[in-house]
Amino acid sequence: MKIVKVECIPVSSPMKKPVIMPNTRITAIHSLVLRITADDGTVGIADSGDTSSWYRGELQDSMMGIICDVIAPRILLGEDPRKIEKIVGKMDLLVRDNYQAKALVDFALHDLKGKHYQVPVYELLGGRTTEGAQLGWVLSAGTPDEVAEEAKVALAHGFSLLKMKTGHGTLDDDIAMARAVRETVGPHVRLTVDANGFWNYEQALRVIRALDPLNLELIEQPLPYWDIEGLARLRGQVRTPIYADEAAQELHHIKEIIDRRAADGLFIKLQKAGGLVKSQRWLALARLSGLPVMCGCMIGSGLEHSPAVHLWTANQWASQFLNESLGPLMIHNVWNSKDIPAGADLAMNVPRFENGVTYPNEGPGLGIDLNEEFLVRNRTPGKSPRTVEL
Questions:
Q1: Rounded to two decimals, what is the model's pTM?
Q2: Of 17, 83, 155, 161, whose CB has the highest number of CB atoms within 10 Å?
Q3: CATH class assigned to 3-119+371-389
């Protein structure tokens, strides 16, 4: 069995409601769809989710370039697609960083391998530990009244935790928003705040000390990704637990966070870790250190979400903690997958989201049927697909 064709297709999925983050207003998800075809006709598919110049520095064009110019001709074409560990190792030898592009390849290979053996991807990851993954809801940044109202609705739909995004106004506005949400939902609802690394040390210290009385579950990435030493100092000065996201990238970053005692927990995104193979290594290190891990996403289609829910229902350590991979719900501005209009998503069969829980599809591989009409209708303007063949 060998890989004979690799296709990259740039897609832009419009959002029903913009997502507002610090210095960012997301109105469409610009992602890359990958198809890997084997000589027996089996096709593995994957969706990168949104690309981000500020999160990991990868864009549709950069991912297409590194896959079509390096990874496909030098690693994939002619190789057995079932040898995922070997392929991941070669990608890391020949390509520095570019973890979102590597993750896209990893996802498509797992889909292809699952289809070849006629098993869901979660079976390739050790089998099912739990039926579904409990979800937290990410609130869009806004005024205190707006965010508090959305928080009430999210709770009514069964979500286990609410995350607040900063950056709608001033730091005092962020504090007022958090206080309004806590007052609205009561003292026992699990609440978090995510600063996405946009505060400096003095700002973070002032804001978190003001938020300490709210009994938040955690503050996510209050400082820039590179300031692990600052996270350690900050953690010693506040009561609210500190979790690392942007700082928790490669394995050596996780080790540094552990060694410096810089965080109470970690956030993983499978694209940040570099795929399913590397996410399992990432989770093993978190397990070794006793650090809880929550799962985020790059915001994407049902296809983008699928690897995360397969991992979160298979991996025993991960399954104990919350998943925030909500891409299809955020794109379509709904609370449950049944409310997504037929044919509106890149995936014909979006994984089930219901009452604050998400479940993996049961078909072979990722269990996703690609919406070919959506691919054509939502091709990113001004960008062309690329194909590399053996």
A1: 0.96
A2: 161
A3: alpha beta
